[in-house]
Amino acid sequence: MIALTRQALKRPSVTIVLALGIIIFGLITVGSVKQELLPNLSFPIVTITTVYPGANAEAVDRTVTAPIENALSGLQGVESTQSTSSEGFAFTIVQFDVNADVKAAKSDVADKISSVTFPTGVQTPKVGTFDFNSLPAINASVSSKDPNISLADLQTRVQGELIPNLSSINGVSRVNLTGGEQQQVLITLDPDKMAQNKVTQTQVVQILQANNLAFPVGTLDESGRSLPLRVTHAFSTTTEIENLVLGIKGGLPTGTGATGATGATGATATTPAANQTQPATTPGATTAATGTGQVQIPDALLLHVKDIATVQVAKTGNATITRTNGNPSLGLQVYIDPNANIISVTQAVKDELNRAANAQSATPLTFKLVTEQAATIQKSISGVVQEGLTGAVIAVIVIFIFLLSLRTTLIAAVSIPVSVIVALILMRLQGFSLNVITLGGLAVAIGRVVDDSIVVLENIYRHVREGDEVNSSVIQGTREVAGAITTSTLTTVAVFLPLGLAGGFVSKLFLPFSLTVTYALLASLLVALTVVPLLARLFMGRLAKGGKVAQAGKSEEEENSWLQRAYTPVLKWSLKHRWITLLIAGVVFFGSLGLASQLKFTFLPDSPQKNISISLTTPPGTDLQSTTAKAVQVENLIKPLQSQGKVSDIQTTIGQGSGTAAALAQLTGGSAGGVPNTAALTVSLTGQAGDADALASSLEAQINAIGGFQTVTVQTVAASQSGGGGQSSGLDIELVGNNTDSLRQANKTILDYLSGDKAKQLNIANVTSNLADVKPALQVDVNPQLAIVHGTTAAQVAQQIGGLLNGASAGTITLSSSSDPTAVNKPLTMYVQVDPSKLNLDRIKNLPVGTINPVALAQVATIQEVPGAVSITRINGDQAASITGKITSKDTINVQRQVEQEIKKLSLPAGVTVGTGTQAQSQADALSSLGVALLVAIGLVYLVMLIWSGSLLNPLVILFSLPLAAIGAILGLFITGKPIGITSLIGMLMLIGIVVTNAIVLLDLVEQYRRSGRSVYDSVLHAGRVRVRPILMTAIATIVALVPLALSSGNESFLTSDLAIVVMGGLFTSTMLTLLVVPVVYSLVSGLRNRLSRKPKSPQIPPAQPLPSEETTAEAVS
User: Fold this and answer.
1) Which of 132, 157, 189 represents a domain boundary (last residue)?
2) 361, 374, 614, 1114: least CB-packed within 10 angstroms?
């Protein structure tokens, strides 16, 4: 390494130009580094969202979910599958191996799904992937300044103008609109008139399609030209639809369609031969093909659409309803491409929203930003940057206090900007972004990057002070510590290598952190070996020539600073009472382990800035309007908090679903479909809200007092994640069984047990299961022999009934005129439905089915009421249930374990297995992997030191500083009330590499003295006196640089706050005790080594000459 120093000194101009060039290039580069809240966390999770309108949960499970799972069964790399089937909706989560390529996995899943044959009516499945940056960049509510403007009018302008403009912005991936209503041409059939005329809904749909088409029929050669020929007809008014002939009243057919059906069968758009009514030759009459000729039919006998239906432009029923601050609104979600610059794209989106709001229009728009990622990102990043800069300034001040020289302080401090800028350059080249994790890494590294420079500078100055020539002092001083600082830096870097063993979330989240710290530390080592020696030669050379090196030529033995005077007696006593010293250290260490047993365990720390998330479900079967009424009651509970200034906004969404499936479906571009008995409220808190958790508990009690809810879940979420899910750590239990009844019985037993006082005792609340209660359902059992006589099958009957109950699209038309001006000149869906107000069980039984002499449904099937599942969950193909709840304690990991142990005591039905849920198991595995990573890191540190020292025992002596660091880490967490989680464990991982630095620097000098012939006692004592100041200086600089980060209450700095506390506490105790314990252990090991090698003991009596000492830099530099 000294070769680098020689080259830097040999070519000073090149060294300075390179350093300046790096700084300039870095300042230019940093502006182009992408900014985001967290690293791009793409997990090997593929989701499949499938909509099957009108199908119940059992049908969805049997005809959609099961075929999908079967198709995926042979897919390589799949670790697990979890599926939820509910009414009209299927959602499947496919978990791949953590190292799987997400894009390839998505492509493989899509290929498998494309080969599956689904029943008619099943929409094409949507395949998506999941990452934390999939949350909408902007979530806004849309309303109007004019209270007379309807949501439909708002939607017309938003869809026709705003969404296309937003979608055209470079970097916007998609725009979603929720809570709106669609216009359509609604054809409502009267079931009584249908029965009288033996007309089915399917026939009406087919005839409409057959008369609203553009059908290519071939080409015609005309005058040497080949002309494509097509047959077209398009409805342009509702009157045309009303006057469309369906057949003859009473069921007499006007012709036989291509499908072979009699009556007004119609046909699909591909066979437009069905409706064969001919032009009449007599006014008021129509002719019909009979097979032997044409018969004139009086118009009075013809059956028109208007005879059995009403035709009107109407609004569709809302699948979801959104409300903002108690008023109806539209929800607008803007998603940004993961590779785009979220700051600039968000600004462009906001500019477009402002333009739309200020534009003159008959439909004025008002926007309210509910969440905005860019603002959170900028605030969080600026907060971390400010904390890092504050830490750097404090660290420089500490160095100045020790050195009492501005010039020398600046030489040591130069490593901070250069190291940080080098790290930023390498981050940019590797594609890392500026986020709270990478910037937190830089903030943590700031105190550490000056350590190598301080050690080099101190040693150089020691030689100058002894009267050596400046160039010789620089070379010799750097050479003596080059090995030590290289080893110490490599040990700090090496501890991050095992982080890959943690895998999954931890590895993906903290890998950018680890590499950022690594880049900064390696850069600081390079600076310490090149730039610092060069600057030391320039500045110290001038000072020496000017006679400002105080007491130049004075030996170390003659100097005795105040720090040495304080430290030497303590060190002497420790060396004299070695076993007592170790006993004291051991008592302190084991005492701290006692405190560790009182620490709580969690996965991720709580965010200090929170909002409140409320999830509500009403009993199964509750319609959207009734659920909305209950949600309004909850809004009214919260409104007083707005007037008190504690709540800024209330955003409500009804009908979008809840739970993991709904959240993941939204994140991955799917839709949970209409789930009318669910409502979700996001309550944005202000700084005056006080304790968010207490407020959430109070609201939960008040909501439960309202009554009428099946489940109520109120929890706090990080302000930056509002709308994106609940807490990351909650109760998560998994039940798997091969028998539905046994599974339900076990589910009920556990839910009953985890309620009331037992729930309070276990620190849990809101324990629910996704094994939904059954609700009454009607089952139609079709007799195949009877059905075929009437030209139908069970599948066709199911399709017909589904259409009757749910309606069916008959194509798209564009009206040229309408009583509703907003419906003109835009595509509208023709939607055919049976009048829902006239549908009941008796009417369903009498509805005509079949295509040959249609008959009442009851004549070909039996209809009975049976219990039906609301939803069905499967894990790896087995029917399962997930029991989840809120953990009211910060000790989330231990609460989860305790609940599992309690459940094991219960008597559950045979065949039901209970295990840790997927999320909880992933968290437990990650924490366990981090524990393994800590052990591997210790081994790597030992290996690096072994290569450096060539001794088996010296690295073991240095590792004695690790338990000393654990004392401070535990005390830090205990005093601040922080739980142990992944961030604090990452801090402990860093400590392994950092705390050995002091011991390495100390023992390196001890070994140098030993090689010069000094005794063990003399070497240890003298090295301790010489190294006490640089050790304390580097440790204190690192500690104080972390103070702003540790004390931060920023929205996202909490992720690195616990880490900073651990490093500060561990470094403090390890530094204080290393200066005493490591010398003691070294002397004991050396004595043991001497006895084993049968060599005489080294003298343990202090020399008679004055103790060696070191002069402070302040005495040499003015």
Assistant:
1) 132
2) 361
Torsion on CA atoms 219, 221, 222, 223, rounded to nearest 10: 150
Is the predicted pLDDT of residue 763 greater than 80, yes or no? yes
Distance CA 664, CA 792 (A): 40
| Distance between first and last Cα of the chain | 31
- Judge if 28 and 109 occupy the same domain: no
Domain assignment present for residue 1044? The answer is: yes
Beta bridge partners of 774: 869
Q: How confident is the model at residue 1091 (pLDDT cuts 50, 70, 90)?
A: confident
DSSP state of 131: E
981 and 1043 in a single domain? The answer is yes
Same domain, 981 and 1078: yes
Reported as a single tens digit per residue, the pLDDT across 335-381 is 888 778 888 899 999 999 999 988 877 788 889 888 888 887 888 78
Helix 2-10 / helix 12-30 crossing angle, nearest 10 deg: 100
**Residue-level pLDDT at 394:** 87
Q: What is the mean pLDDT of the chain?
A: 81
**96 with 9, same domain?**
no
Query: Strand 855-856 and strand 861-869: pairing?
Result: unpaired
If one counts the domains in the chain, the total is 2
Cβ contact 698:878 at 8 Å: no
pLDDT digits 0-9 by tens, 479-499: 988 888 898 889 888 888 887
Question: Is the sign of the CA dihedral 367, 369, 374, 375 positive or negative?
Answer: positive
**63 shares a domain with 25:** no
- The residue assigned the tokens 């699948």 is 319
Residue 977: domain span: 2-32+404-603+924-1099+1108-1115
> Is the backbone of residue 263 left (phi > 0), alpha (psi -120 to 50) or beta?
left
- Token digits of residue 565: 């005077």
In this structure, what DSSP letter does residue 601 have? B
| pLDDT tens per residue across span 943-976 | 988 888 888 888 888 888 888 888 999 998 898 8
> Of 98, 117, 132, which marks where a domain is finished?
132
